[in-house]
Amino acid sequence: LNNTQYARLTEIVGGNDLGVGIFIGAHQSIGFKGILLAGTPEQKEQYLPKLASGEEFAAFALTEPASGSDAGSIKTRAELSPDGKHWIMNGAKIWISNGGIAEVFTVFAKTPVTDEATGTVTEKVSAFIVERSFGGVTNGPPEKKMGIKCSNTAEVYFENTPVPVENVLGGIGNGFKVAMQILNNGRFGMGAALSGTMRTVITKAAEHATQRAQFGSRIDSYGAIQEKLARMAMIHYATESMAYMVSGTMDRGYDDYQLEAAISKIFASEAAWFVTDEGIQILGGNGYMKALGLEKVMRDLRIFRIFEGTNDILRLFVALTGIQYAGGHLRELQKAVKDPISNFGVVLGEVSKRAKGGLGIGPGNSLADKVHPNLVDSAALVCKSVDQFGGAVEKLLIKHGKHIVNEQFLLNRLANATIDIYA
Predict the structure, then answer these.
(1) How far apart are CA 103 and CA 88, in angstroms?
(2) 3-state DSSP call for residue 302?
(3) CA nearest 11: which of 257, 190, 202, 152?
(4) CA 221, CA 260: separation in Å to the nearest integer?
(5) What phi and psi, each to the nearest 5 degrees, are found at residue 197?
(6) 171 FRET partner, CA 20 to 30 A, in 233, 261, 280, 300?
(7) What gap in Å lies between CA 201 and CA 195, rounded to an integer?
(8) Is the dihedral angle over the CA atoms 186, 65, 100, 13 positive or is it negative?
């Protein structure tokens, strides 16, 4: 399946049961995704057929008791055996989806890496393909969770587990890069799955509103209910559009989609919570009861703002990654100003742009010819928002410089603006 086809299927699954979606995602979206993205031809030939057929299940093992968002602080270690044929792994992972049923694990562990130039040994994270059959792999009982209860979540332990040297993924010391590749690639599916969830919730809310009568009229005739349903539909449309924009970008072969995937994950997980909360509100007391199923959806949804990158960390990622381009532009401008004769065109263009900005003259509606005539006014608002946003980023960089990384309050506001503009 290509990414869009996979997204279509996860949308259907998400509309029925998010716990089943987690089982599928833990297996396919992140479990064996490392083999697809960073595996050698031999690794793919050995593992993918059984994983694709469902004969074997996979899991992604990164999180540890002392290592959540800070993946670099993991304690699991792998040491090369004396004969150089195996990495001997020891450590424990927690909250691993499919941890109790998987036969194949993508595991991240610290390994000693020697700098050939200096001979200095440092510890870096490496990724490994680990089979349960290698020995020394055990798991704890299924965790008792708030939601997604039909998915298996367990601790996984590695005790002197011998991993063949050919089972290293992406090279020794490149584990963090492999983990980010997997997570960035897998996030797009979350938007599609939660789009399916929202569709189901909106359908239930609309059915109730058209059948429920109060004060002599059906409640869907009241403006307050109409506004709720309209906002729910609007946010669902934005979520679905984002999900398939990202999957389409991936299917066209672009590699630079991590920001859009992160935005999609943040927006979808918060939008689904809002839509379900409003759905319960429309259903009133019935929505609070187990019979109609929305309380289960609410419990299932809570994890989506936490796993595969907490929304808090992803907001910082969105802001800081986006700022890098603006920072690079300002550095180039600083160089140009130091030698204005050689860089006359650059300096003149910047002076012209800033002069127009000072007079309140923006770049205009550059999207007018790219949208339907009915959307020209909305396109103008987008262009104005982008222009104002760019100015705000520059001012923050000029004021704080490299210390902007410590201004989390401001970074969160930048991220929220980015997410809203993209949506």
Answers:
(1) 18
(2) helix
(3) 190
(4) 38
(5) -60, -45
(6) 261
(7) 10
(8) negative
Name which of 293, 316, 295, 314 is nearest 305 in CA terms: 314
- How high is the pLDDT of residue 347? 39
Task: Write down the residue that tokens 């409003």 correspond to.
Answer: 278
Clarify whether 308 is annotated catalytic.
Answer: yes
Return the amino acid letter for 13: V
Residue count of the chain, please give it. Answer: 423
The reported pTM is: 0.89
pLDDT number for residue 45:
97
- From the list 245, 303, 307, the residue with the least C-alpha distance to 272 is 303
**Inter-residue contact 232 to 200 (CB < 8 Å):** no
- Per the listing, tokens 């006014």 go with 377
Question: What is the token pair recorded at 205?
Answer: 């809310």
Q: Which two tokens stand for residue 229?
A: 């349903």
Name 131's bridge partners.
104
| 256: DSSP letter | -
DSSP state of 219: G
Q: Over the stretch 57-68, which tens digit does the pLDDT of each residue have?
A: 999 999 999 887
- The active-site residue out of 11, 131, 260, 308 is 308
